[in-house]
Design a protein that fits this description.
Strand content: 25-35%
Number of helices: 4
Distance between the termini: 23 Å
Radius of gyration: 21 Å
Shape: globular
Order of helices and strands: EEEEEEEEEEEEHHEHEHE
Number of strands: 15
Structural class: alpha+beta
Largest sheet: 9 strands, mixed
Amino acid sequence: MPPRRILPPKTKHGKTQAGITTAILLALSTGCVVSPPQEEGGTEQTRPSQANPSLPGAENPSEVVASSTTTSTSLGSDLQIDVYALERMENDLLRLRIGVTNKSEDNFNLGFGLSETDHLSAGSVSLIDERNQQRYLSYRQSSGQCFCNQLDGNIPSGETDLLWVMYPKPPEDLERMTVTTPLTPPIFDIPITSSSETIENSNLDSPQILDLTMISDSLDGDQTGRTESNEEVSIILSSDVLFDTNSAELTNEARDILEQVAQEIDDSGAPTVSIDGHADNTGNDSINIPLSQERAESVEKSLAEIITGEGITFEVEGHGSADPIADNETEEGRERNRRVSVTFEK
């Protein structure tokens, strides 16, 4: 019998979709707002490219726009992310200002939690333009470092430290964006304001604005799509999109796709979600079955973190090369067979 995992109930203080379609991201803007202290928790950086590390424009950081508690840290909901502002600046820059509040009894080191490459920063926080179906990545400097500030060290118990990150400026008529972080569900509907400040930086890499990956109603292209019957939906996700070769660790692109899947599961209200991992016939079952099981478990773990529905049961199984949906004698067929399917009632 496949392993079963029941997602424990989650407190939902509020859920907003704000015009986000089913094919976009999971909406969760939740958690009680904690007013941070009036001084920034970080210290001045020595990098010459950080022209104003003291977070200009943050004289009143207690005005929180939206909040979300974390889902993937040791502190759980005791670590809170607050959005203070998303503001257009001069020189075609967009600045995000956030606070990180430690509501636990222990000090907390953010480490690489909000950035894969820049310690104690928020360099991996990205912005979603839902209208134009695009994701904005933070600006990188020619040195490879994020155009952002960094925390001084641990966040003490009960305190808030402030971070800022720079992005390319979006279209002038765009009024709101979604903030996505590695540690929280997406924070929707953040208004874009204006600032008269100028921060000089002539050493920026090219802006990175990526098209969102959508789940279509066919299996063309990247072999990611869906099948439906009268009773249930099965979303087929290409392992080549979700994982690197011979790996069960989800790629950055996988997060976007799984947020869309989570939204569909939430919309359906299904009590049970089946996740099945499959491989092609390359190699043997001693390798393929454990790998397909681990990949299914990785998808289950990620969905469990971002689904807002209560009491959902997960059924997870790896099938190896069994149950192919295409001819394993061709590369195209093997690509289709390398997949994870997520099935739930309508």
